[in-house]
Design goal:
This protein has helices at about 10-25, 40-50, 60-70, 80-90, 95-100, 100-125, 135-155. It has about 170 residues and is mainly alpha-helical.
């Protein structure tokens, strides 16, 4: 008996989304707005961990984190480790996170963003790299503002294998 391998229609969408996030990361912005650049890849990983946890989880987070490290020229593995922590927490509690009102979901995402930025702060502190206050809080504010729009746009493109109410 040969098992038929089911094609996952979301793989192409995820690959295109990762490429789009990488492009948004490397697009130059004015100096005054550079500290407020959202964490595009982290928002995508949180969305995937909440809505499609069995298909895209820690492996995707690690690979995407390494891509962000290479794109930003930061310490190799820094974003990969922080992304792993966030996706682990999100995947572990995805059933509880999924069934909350939008304002509570936004609060949870902000909390995850704070954990992500604290992990980066800790890694930078251990390695002796200093950064300003806005370098850590700017992405949290901008990502929190963008999250509702970002998640609505992505939810239109993904194919769910079962309804969210059944899971």
């Amino acid at each position: 008996m040969v098992k038929e391998k089911k094609e996952n229609p979301n793989k192409v969408i995820v690959i295109m989304s990762i490429i789009a996030c990488l492009l948004l990361i490397i697009i130059p912005m004015p100096e005054s707005l550079n500290e407020y650049k959202p964490n595009w890849m982290l928002l995508l990983l949180i969305f995937l961990a909440i809505n499609l946890p069995k298909e895209f989880n820690l492996g995707t987070a690690f690979f995407a984190g390494l891509l962000v490290d290479v794109a930003k020229g930061s310490l190799l593995g820094q974003h990969a480790l922080a992304s792993l922590i966030i996706v682990f927490l999100t995947t572990k509690y995805h059933l509880q996170i999924r069934n909350v009102p939008q304002i509570q979901l936004l609060t949870t995402v902000v909390f995850l963003l704070v954990i992500f930025q604290f992990t980066l702060f800790w890694i930078n502190g251990v390695s002796g790299i200093s950064a300003s206050f806005r370098d850590y809080w700017g992405p949290i504010v901008s990502s929190a503002i963008i999250w509702p729009i970002f998640s609505r746009i992505l939810s239109k493109y993904f194919v769910y294998t079962s309804s969210k109410e059944k899971i």
